[in-house]
Amino acid sequence: MEDDLQQFLKSRDVPEEDIIHMKRDKLCDIQRGCEFIDLTNQISTHHNNIFETHGDDDTVEWNEDDELGQTDEDQTTVITLNLNAELNEAETEVPSPPSSNPVLLMGNEMLSAPEDLPSHSRNHLSPTISSGNSENSKDVHALIHRVKVVEDLLAVFMDSSIIQSTLKMEFVNESAVDDAGVSREVYTAFWDQFLEQCEGEDERVPRLRPDFSEVEWEAVGRIWVKGLLDLDVLPVRLSSAFIVACIHGIDSVSDDVLMSSFQNYLSSTERSAVAKARQGTLEECDEEDLLDLFTRMGSHCIPPKNTMEVAIQTMAHKAILQEPKYIIDCFSKTMIFALLKVPDQDSLLSLYDRRRPLVKKVAQLLQTTQEIQSQKEQMVFNHLQRYVRNADQGKAEKFLRFCTGSSVICVDQIKVSFSAESGLCRRPVAHTCGATLDLPYTYSSYPDLRTEMITFCPVITLKWTSCEFDAAQE
């Protein structure tokens, strides 16, 4: 049996050295009850490399009604290999993606889900990626489930080439056309959910997770870079000192940047206690809060006053830079693409300042689409400006996301146009792709406008497809 197999391999131009290795590794230890039957004599020799390079494309045809029956006299099982493909096309065929990856769409055609599944089931199988290849880059279209945006977006960004690709995204079962607005909403939803699993308060630092390996952390880094380069989406709640370390190295983080980031990392109570401790004005009522902080960071006593500053800086370095060191190393592999945007620490900190959605800066974004307004339009526009200026930080972020799809400032202006809607049809309508707000001029007073803005902004921020759908119809 082994001699027959050896002759078969030699007839297929398999090198003698490979045959020896196969015998040594017992790869040719075929059971005696099996018999190879050569059905490939009609295939020309110049196609024999298909057995090595396209083995996954071979199909085993099994007819359960015949040809596999066994008798007591015949213990031989016959396996028929059928290369049912055009050999000229086999060498250029794209292999199917692994089952663990999102469904890939090449060109304009989609790999359909099984026909026996209902349509709503097919939509929720996995994130879907379509790509059209070109010489230097490719167009990628991704379908994201809002309820698992972190998981789906990570699957899209596992591919390192996504940075150079043109990416368009949309949410499953939500009618929208992505002209920047939908992508901004996807990135914003991702960072909102991701940062909930991070350490800290106003500024947060990623923590090691058992479900995240190196590839997941690198994908998160690509999401940060891609959102910044394509849409100026910068998650300002992600610690600035942490990002400086990812891009320029831990040694480049200055003490001022580290301490500023650490102050925002702490809660308001801990922040007050640390500030008093650094100034030497710590009171007894604050000592317990400071002791709780030092205990959480690994120390079980409050250091003396002469070493307090050094101890706090060491604690900040540990929390912001040392504990997430592995994550910093993973991020740094992809952050090189951001160097043109933020070549040094000062440019990054300046970008953080410009993107933070401070109430005053959000109000300054409002611009009317017409230079001359009617008296009613001017009055309603003044009401809108007053609403934004009087809003707290949370409401300002919701209003910004309602108008642009992002909770950080990533547009130069928000254009306000006016409509004559009234009654039950009256409502503010936002077109996030163009950062435009359609506002009825039929509000009779400021409380009238404020009531509807408070009612609609949080709701449409979470379910904004009707706004985008209106924009798509224009």
From TrEMBL:
Residues 217-452 form the HECT domain. The keyword Transferase applies. Pfam families: HECT (PF00632). Residues 124-135 have a biased composition (Polar residues). GO terms for molecular function: ubiquitin-protein transferase activity. Gene3D superfamilies: Hect, E3 ligase catalytic domain, Hect, E3 ligase catalytic domains. Keywords: Transferase, Ubl conjugation pathway. The keyword Transferase applies. InterPro entries: HECT_dom, Hect_E3_ubiquitin_ligase. SUPFAM superfamilies: Hect, E3 ligase catalytic domain. Residues 117-136 are annotated as: Disordered. This is HECT domain-containing protein. It comes from Culter alburnus (Topmouth culter). The lineage of its organism: Eukaryota, Metazoa, Chordata, Craniata, Vertebrata.
